[in-house]
Amino acid sequence: MVVYSPGRANLIGEHTDYNDGFVLPFAIKRYVKIEIEPSKKFKIFSHQLKKGIEFDTPTKTNSWADYVIGMVQKLREHGYEVKPFTMNIDSDLPMGAGLSSSAALEVGVGYAISQMMEFEIDREELAKIAHECEVDFVGVRCGIMDQYAVALSKENHALFIDTMTREYKYVPLRLDDTKLYLINSGVKHELGSSEYNKRRHECELALQALRKSSFREVTLEDIEKIQDPVLKKRALHVVTENERVLKTLSALEDDNLVLVGKYLYESHYSLKDNYEVSCEEIDFLIEKLREYSNVLGARIVGAGFGGSIIALVKGNFESIFEKISEAYRIKFGILPTLLNVDTSNGVFRAL
Fold first, then answer.
1. Tens of pLDDT along 228-265?
2. Kindly report the CA angle at 307 between 214 and 181, in degrees rounded to 5?
3. Pairing state of beta strands 85-91 and 42-46?
4. Looking at domain 178-340, which CATH architecture does it have?
5. Residues 217, 140, 232, 25, CA torsion sign
6. What three-state secondary structure class fits 45?
7. How many CB atoms are closer than 10 A to CB 244?
8. So which residues are the catalytic ones?
9. Which of 59, 246, 247, 249 has the fewest Cβ atoms within 10 angstroms?
10. Galactokinase N-terminal domain: which residues (predicted)?
């Protein structure tokens, strides 16, 4: 049996998913491919890493295999009798580019197991189990966005998620003569994961300072009362980013892609100045993109400190990208890569 599990891009709503906020991701036509069949013991092989592992009982290894082992463990905790299997994993999702290859693997593994063993697991439950795997087993305190996007997405739509209530709805992406692109900067600064957890903690401290339990209760007037300048900036990003997601939602419903682009740029500058998760290389690319009027908007995506930019572009972009790419290479000695982003359905089984 073969299963394809998509990566995801996030149009807008960055660092809001673990703050009870709004997000607007969509799945992309880049996949983790999983082949599974029954076996006498658990055997996993990654074609990308050219590494394999065998085990009888699911125990943590602190390696890539934990995304698979953790799903076996979590499914069992939820009462599903997971029997041994052989699994081959391949992918055309670039790792470390902010496209959520980890959630694609978790959701894909869970879906492949449930299909092969005929478990009755709906997609929402599958996403929640995959999220538990990442948080409890792998140990990354992420929000629910990635797993929901991988499990629940629909082609030609974005997925609007209220991460506090976990309610979601499909939002048509009528792009017409505009296209979405991802630009991989080719850099990933090491402080990414440590700073991610630090930002989470700073958000918690900001709420404590305001004596609030959720950012959904926080207004711009409240933020002015925060004494600590760093905590004030973090809170300002979360509250204004939530507003930008809702404004983007309205702009998409009105087919106003120029306005969507404006909100993307605003999101980037908030991530740069208030949340402080951008970097020199990403900012250079953003400023170069701003020189071209047919680039409607762009922003850093993912945890930050490198990774990728999402750009909304009207008309031809390849020639513009060549010029920007050359300027970037001259300055940083790195060639960025361009990924044309097409929307995808959530995880599915090959027929």
1. 999 999 999 999 999 999 999 999 999 999 999 999 99
2. 95
3. parallel
4. 2-Layer Sandwich (3.30)
5. negative
6. strand
7. 24
8. 146
9. 59
10. 2-34
